[in-house]
Amino acid sequence: MEVKQDSLISKALMLKIEANREQFANEFYMIQLYYGTYDQATEIMEEVQELDPELEVKMSFETPNYKVQVGPFKKYLDALEQLNILKKTFREAFLLEPKTGL
């Protein structure tokens, strides 16, 4: 069975995905733990999950490196508290603030 889809639907979907990314970046705090190779990023993800299985940890690719981030956090104080905990293990960790600021 072949499904035909109008190209406008694909374009609309891509626009919606980009709008959601922008909204997310404007509303939530994230903690970045690492930026570098895939192998190291994978190790760090595993370490975070062992450290605190409740944390939401994500890996993304930004040419030519991988990023490992924890979050999202809606409240600044929650993000800051978690950052202080993570900095004990990941000294290079830093807070990514929403684009609109506090």
Give the strand tally.
4
- Second rung of CATH, namely the architecture of the domain at 28-96: 2-Layer Sandwich
Percentage beta strand: 25-35%
Return the structural class.
alpha+beta
CATH superfamily of the domain at 28-96, called what?
Sporulation related repeat
The overall pLDDT average reads 86
| Biggest sheet overview | 4 strands, antiparallel
- The helix count comes to 3
- What percent of the residues sit in helical stretches (DSSP H or I)? 40-55%
Unreliably modeled segments: none
Element-level helix/strand string: HEHEEHE
What is the CATH topology assignment of the domain at 28-96?
Alpha-Beta Plaits
Major beta sheet, strand line-up: 2-3-1-4
Q: First CA to last CA: what distance?
A: 51 Å
How large is the radius of gyration?
Answer: 17 Å
Gross morphology is extended
Query: What is the CATH C level class of the domain at 28-96, in words?
Result: Alpha Beta
